[in-house]
Amino acid sequence: MKKQRYLVTIVITVGFIIFSCPAVAKNAVQVIVHTDNPNKTLSDKKMREIFLGSFLGSTKEWPKSKDIIHRVELPNNSLIRKDFLKNKLKVSSTRVAKERQKQNNGGRRPKNLKQVSNEQEVITYVAENTGAVGYISGSKELNNLNVKTLQVKSKKSSRGLFK
Questions:
Q1: Contact at 8 Å (CB) between 57 and 151?
Q2: CA-closest candidate to residue 34, choices 162, 146, 143, 154
Q3: 32, 150 contact by CB (below 8 A)
């Protein structure tokens, strides 16, 4: 009887941790830019062009600005990155990894792309570069960090990529 109670307690605790984790919750990712970026909103199509531009035809400059876009992203094994790709860009992390591998093998590395190891490095990079764009968990506070959230407007008829 004690073993069953112990097991139930563990299952409930693990379930609570998994479902309360912001990186796992659907659409729990925010896109961030430098505070000097004049853009307040971005269409989901434009966001996909920015983050997957090396696959779709690159978007090099920000709308409403002449700043060069510098993408910063988390490592391939990051839950936040996987959530961002799946729920915001509508593409699997496996597919992106395969496309990047093809590019690297062909000598066409993505331009203006910086990969960092954690969310704080994303925030720091965006805060120091006016053209930078990145993504972090939705639960991160951005007060006084020289970055702001960019609202992404999605269209209902969002099509998959790499078809």
A1: no
A2: 146
A3: yes
Burial group, residue 31, by CB count within 10 angstroms (0-12, 13-18, 19+): buried
Residue 84, helix vs strand vs coil:
helix
Residues 6+ apart with CB under 8 A from 140: 30, 119, 123
- Rounded-to-integer distance, Cα 1 and Cα 75, Å: 44
Q: Write the single-letter amino acid at 54.
A: S
Three-state DSSP class for 125? helix
Q: What is the pLDDT of residues 53-90, one digit of tens each?
A: 654 455 688 888 888 888 999 998 899 999 999 988 88
Q: Which two tokens stand for residue 118?
A: 């954690």
Six-digit token string for 92:
């699997």
